[in-house]
Amino acid sequence: MRTPSASRPIHRPSRFLLLAASALVLAACSRPAPPEEPVRSVKLMTVGVGALQSQVEYAGEVRARVESRLGFRVAGKIVQRQAELGQRVKAGDVLAQLDPRDYQLAADSARAQLASATTQRDLAAADYKRYQTLKDQNFISGAELERRDATLKAAQATLDQARAQLSSQGNQAAYTRLVSDVSGVVTGIEAEPGQVVSAGTPVVRIAQDGPRDVVFAVPEDKVAQIAVGSDVAVRGWSGGAELAGKVREVAASADAATRTFQVKVAIEGKDAPALGATVYAQPKALGHAGVVAIKLPTSALRQEGQATAVWVYDAATSTVKSQVVQIATADGNDAVVAAGLTPGMQVVATGVHVLSPGQKVMIYQPKSNGAPAAKAQTAAGNVALPAAAAAPAPAATPVSAAPASK
């Protein structure tokens, strides 16, 4: 027997409503389609070859060829200092003075000992003369005369010792005055009145008159290229004529604090900068002027892991691809590319951080057609470094780096 609910027929409109509701529920649960990535416009530049313009330059200081640190030859307390910083002195000028009283007393004592020794020698000489007369008359033996002769010689030796002691003590007293033995300029004061100094302690530093050096420091990767006798151009910080110098000395070991190597360049001429002046030194051995190389602005570079890369534009597909490059050095505000690019390639110049490999792009077109073209970047894979072994680059006219057109 059928129940009333089982025998009730299902109407077709109800089925349609059920299907529609299920479709709406499924549509609400599904994710919306992602929006299409916009096509970005990029500025391009064409890689070309050209000459480097920058010159390696170091800041240096002008110093005297010979700089002496003068100190007292005896110990004592400084009671006066005549020398002042920056003062010009001549040979024989008194620079400082110690308290001389102890040394004067020692000299007086040596002088008294000399007088005593002189008296003893004179007495021994008189005795020897008297005994010589007695010996001539055969009143004494020869042995007695020899004893008197020995006494005279001992007295003479004591006199010589006292005389030398007095001379030494006189020198010690004179050493309490620090006298300049050269002409020059006082460049340092290292002790003040009232200070007790030992023998040899530097008190005054003097830059001697004569030849001057330009002193500067170079890093470890450049010092091997600088040889003694090589040319260096020197120019003053405040301007003036350029001076020619030659490397006179290269430090054999690095500075313990800065880990750089000190280089001394000899400069001649009456127009040499003043002592202590700041100058710029340009070693010719480190110059790359005229060497051809590829240069790119730093805005075209990006970091890809541990390597440096650029975006290369593919005109056939209007996409960009990543290209790893090797950077050799810097030329002003540009980076010199050692390898990875060849002339004629088109690379993205700006906005490299928003692109991805294979991304479709369009070339940026400036609104004004009268905008001047940017100056070309230069050079091929031959690196502007002495350590790089590269084939000579062909002479080429700098290529315009204006945005490329379709």
Write out key terms for the chains shown.
rod-shaped; conserved putative lor/sdh protein from methanococcus maripaludis s2 fold; Helix Hairpins; six-stranded antiparallel β-sheet; 4 helices; 22% helix; 3 domains; 406 residues; Elongation Factor Tu (Ef-tu), domain 3; disordered N terminus; alpha+beta; six-stranded antiparallel barrel; 24 strands
| Structural class by sheet pairing and helices | alpha+beta
Number of strands: 24
Measured by DSSP, the beta-strand proportion falls in 25-35%
Report the major sheet: 6 strands, antiparallel
Provide structural commentary.
- There is one protein chain.
- With 406 residues, the protein is of the alpha+beta class.
- It has three domains: 137 residues, conserved putative lor/sdh protein from methanococcus maripaludis s2 fold (Beta Barrel); 86 residues, Elongation Factor Tu (Ef-tu), domain 3 (Beta Barrel); 74 residues, Orthogonal Bundle (Helix Hairpins), CATH 1.10.287.
- The strands form six sheets. Strands 3-18-22-21-20-19 form a six-stranded antiparallel beta sheet, with no helix packed on it. Strands 4-13-16-15-14-17 form a six-stranded antiparallel beta barrel.
- Strand 19 and strand 20 form a beta hairpin.
- The longest helix has 36 residues.
- The two termini are 85 Å apart.
- The N terminus and C terminus are likely disordered.
